[in-house]
Design brief:
This protein has 767 residues and is of the alpha/beta class. The protein has six domains: 63 residues, DnaJ domain (Helix Hairpins, Orthogonal Bundle), CATH 1.10.287; 106 residues, Glutaredoxin; 105 residues, Glutaredoxin (3-Layer(aba) Sandwich); 135 residues, Glutaredoxin (3-Layer(aba) Sandwich), CATH 3.40.30; 31 residues; 135 residues, Glutaredoxin (3-Layer(aba) Sandwich). Helices cover 40% and strands 14% of the residues. It contains 29 helices and 21 strands. It has a six-stranded mixed sheet, with helices on both faces. A six-stranded mixed sheet has the order 16-18-17-19-20-21, with helices on one face. A five-stranded mixed sheet has the order 5-7-6-8-9. Helix 1 packs across helix 6 and helix 24 crosses helix 26.
């Protein structure tokens, strides 16, 4: 009950400091209004001008109010929590109220032994507190230089108490070695905690290269150290012995980096050295020599190593002697950083990227900060070796803070070389030296090239030295100007390699998320995955059951010969009909064959119907002409499709269908002598493929003005012409066209739904 009453009593205490009230501005005031109010009040209450006894206190309040409101982060904290100080929203008034409450009842805070209130909270974590904007803008970019160990905590976190001693010890040790430390308080930075995927406290996680990894083992010192080491790439430091040190040190030509060797008597690579290698991996290559290991005696003897003192050496272009050495019984981060920062580049670095060019040859900021680059434009191979060696010797002898010596392979950076040498003939196949100064970041440079090609002779050395001496007193010596394009990144990995490593990282992230991450993070992905699988398999199962009956009667695939013949017939008909049918009566009518039978009928979409005209080869042209004129007004409906069926090819299919319309069409038995002579030309079937029914239109008989106008129910077998050779059935005759007389009225009744429907169990195969 006491613990529940404490926050209520604290919240009841009135606030004592309101920066908005002190400056006399509203909570929605802009920064310009706040600044204006501050200047006015500061002039009014400045102690030197205002002799009021309370002027000094008033001026302090005004300054404090402006300090809070002028900082967007502090202002947001005050608006949210009522305080903008170190307590992150737990106001000092609340702290004092707690004290008064405790003092009034003679309770000592140590009675509870809980470090939950801001006064008792250890200040060790406060300097590592992270905010969302600070994390996104500073911590994440910095994680590409050093790994971060981050603790997620909260108020009233009972589980946080046992890990505090271990956390402090490891955090202090890791910070001294060059690692990063962070603390996220879920009570004040819930957004940041959710962004990281931490939904409970305490949670320990690592951050490196912008990637978050959760710690899942017991919180002990050894496990946390190993966790940080496992965050680092495994190829940062190479183990060096007598067998491979020559190859390692000779790698400067390929890597374009100085190579660092650390000699120590520890059997494993120290974490300090691994963290250093990660921070400088873009500039240096690192190797470790365990001096206590058999097989390193030659290496230690050649470079005169003291096996009892850690030694660090840097090798540049000359592998027989180190460019710089440092020895110390206690290697620390500051010493190593000072040593490496002065040796990040080779004596004559090869420009392999635009980033390297900008770092070695910075843009001129002022007259005193002028830095010039002496560039050797050369090639690869033994042909250019002598010129390079002489240039390297000159660079070693004339190293200065204001000069940087670099070289470029002209065949790898052709645009850069052409911009400086203007494609002059005297430089073709030879080396050249150019002195340049970058003027801006857009690529503008001022430069001067040596008149003759660089051969490395003494005369060339004197000429170059004389130009550099003149440049000290006369910056206008660089009379030529040009704009160079960005350099190609020669050492960038191929696209396939980058894609491969990106894929590996993605798979690793998915594996870690699947088995270690909070399941709350995985629920959206799992829900999406199972929903997609359910829809996929559900659709397949439903389709399989719905098409089971159709699959049994599915027709075999058509032959190529039949398809070619059909296309030929369609082409000849279209050519003939186009010359006889007016454009206004044109209707797209396709032949119903075994090839398109399934798509145009069996699997026709729900609500769609196929209107099929029955014809023969001899009556094809006149019937199609009349059919097109009759149904033209109904072509605007997207649910109607128009086809024709050849009676000569598919008589059996039609006879089978008409058996289900016995009341409308008495079909003779197989012994009827006129069975093969019955004429079904001019009949129209409206087929609903989805619901498996059809409506029937009977042809109009000459002289019939009565009820034989196309009803699905009224069918008279006597209307069939028993001899197709009669003149009434001849192609193009008026009697054939009259068969489709008043078809348009039948189509209207079809759309109204007033025609009789004949249902069938399944659609027969169209053989």
């Amino acid at each position: 009950l006491l613990l529940l009453l404490l926050p209520a009593l604290a919240a009841a205490a009135p606030g004592e400091f309101d920066p908005y009230r002190v400056l006399g501005v509203g909570r929605s005031s802009s920064q310009a209004d706040i600044k204006k109010a501050y200047k006015r009040l500061a002039r009014e209450w400045h102690p030197d001008k205002n002799k009021d006894p309370g002027a000094e206190d008033k001026f302090i309040q005004i300054s404090k109010a402006y300090e809070i409101l002028s900082n967007e982060e502090k202002r947001a904290n005050f608006d949210r929590y009522g305080d903008a100080g170190e307590s992150q929203g737990f106001s000092q008034q609340q702290h004092r109220q707690f004290h008064r409450f405790h003092d009034g009842f003679y309770f000592d805070e140590s009675f509870f032994h809980f470090p939950f209130n801001a006064e008792r909270r250890d200040t060790f974590d406060e300097k590592y507190l992270l905010h969302f904007s600070h994390y996104i803008n500073e911590i994440v970019p910095d994680s590409f230089k050093k790994p971060y160990l981050i603790k997620v905590t909260s108020d009233w976190c009972f589980s946080c108490i046992p890990i505090e001693p271990v956390w402090k010890e490891v955090a202090q040790e890791l910070e001294a070695l060059g690692g990063g430390i962070g603390v996220v308080h879920t009570g004040y930075e819930r957004r940041l905690a959710h962004h990281m995927g931490a939904h409970s406290a305490p949670t320990l996680l690592g951050l490196i290269n912008g990637k978050i990894t959760f710690f899942h083992n017991a919180v002990v010192r050894e496990n946390l150290r190993q966790f940080v080491e496992n965050l680092l790439p495994g190829n940062l430091v190479e183990k060096i012995t007598d067998k491979n040190y020559i190859n390692f040190l000779s790698g400067w030509r390929k890597d374009n980096k100085p190579h660092v060797l650390l000699f120590d008597h520890m059997p494993v690579v120290p974490l300090l050295y691994k963290l250093t290698a990660f921070a400088y991996r873009d500039y240096l290559s690192f190797g470790y020599v365990y001096v206590g290991l058999r097989g390193t005696e030659e290496l230690s003897s050649q470079y005169n190593i003291n096996v009892y003192t850690p030694t660090m050496m840097i090798f540049k272009e000359h592998i027989d002697r180190p460019a710089d050495v440092v020895q110390a019984r206690e290697m620390n981060k500051q010493l190593i950083d000072d040593f490496l920062s002065q040796n990040k580049f080779l004596m004559v670095t090869r420009l392999t990227s635009q980033r390297l060019f900008q770092e070695l040859c910075p843009v001129k900021k002022s007259h005193r900060q002028r830095k010039h680059c002496v560039v050797l434009l050369t090639g690869e191979g033994e042909k250019f070796a002598e010129a390079y060696e002489s240039f390297l010797t000159f660079a070693v002898a004339n190293t200065k803070n204001t000069l940087k010596f670099v070289h470029v392979y002209s065949d790898r950076q052709p645009e850069f070389a052409d911009a400086l040498l203007m494609d002059e003939e005297k430089y073709h196949g030879r080396s050249a030296v150019v002195i340049l100064e970058r003027r801006n970041n857009a690529g503008k440079i001022a430069y001067k090239a040596l008149e003759e090609a660089w051969q490395g002779s003494k005369e060339d050395n004197f000429i170059l030295l004389d130009l550099l001496d003149q440049l000290r007193t006369d910056p206008g010596l660089l009379s030529s100007e040009t704009v160079v394009a960005d350099l190609n990144d020669e050492l960038a990995p191929m696209f396939l390699i980058r894609w491969f490593y990106s894929t590996l990282d993605y798979i690793s992230d998915c594996w870690d998320s699947l088995f270690h991450s909070n399941w709350r993070e995985m629920m959206p992905l799992l829900s999406l995955l199972f929903s997609a699988l359910f829809i996929l398999f559900g659709t397949v199962i439903v389709q399989a059951f719905s098409d089971s009956s159709d699959t049994r009667d599915a027709p075999p695939s058509g032959k190529e010969e039949t398809a070619a013949k059909t296309e030929k017939n369609d082409a000849s008909f279209n050519k003939e009909s186009n010359s006889r049918i007016p454009k206004k009566g044109f209707v797209e009518v396709t032949e119903l064959t075994d090839i398109n039978y399934t798509s145009n009928l069996v699997r026709l979409r729900p609500g769609h119907m196929n209107v099929v005209l029955i014809l023969s080869n001899s009556t094809k042209t006149p019937l199609l002409q009349k059919f097109a004129l009759e149904v033209y007004t109904f072509t605007g409906s997207s649910s109607l499709h128009f086809s024709f069926l050849s009676l000569d090819k598919h008589r059996e299919w039609l006879e089978y269908l008409l058996e289900f319309a016995q009341d409308a069409a008495p079909i003779p038995n197989q012994y009827d002598k006129h069975f093969l002579e019955r004429d079904y030309t001019g009949y129209v079937l409206a087929l609903n493929g989805h619901k498996k029914y059809f409506c029937l239109f009977k042809p109009h008989r000459s002289g019939d003005e009565g009820g034989t106008l196309g009803s699905c129910k009224d069918y008279d077998a006597s209307q069939h012409a028993e001899a197709r050779g009669k003149s009434s059935c001849s192609p193009g005759s008026r009697s054939i066209k009259n068969k489709l007389h008043k078809l348009s009225f039948w189509m209207e009744r079809l759309l109204e739904g007033s025609l009789q429907r004949f249902y069938i169990p399944s659609w027969p195969a169209l053989d």
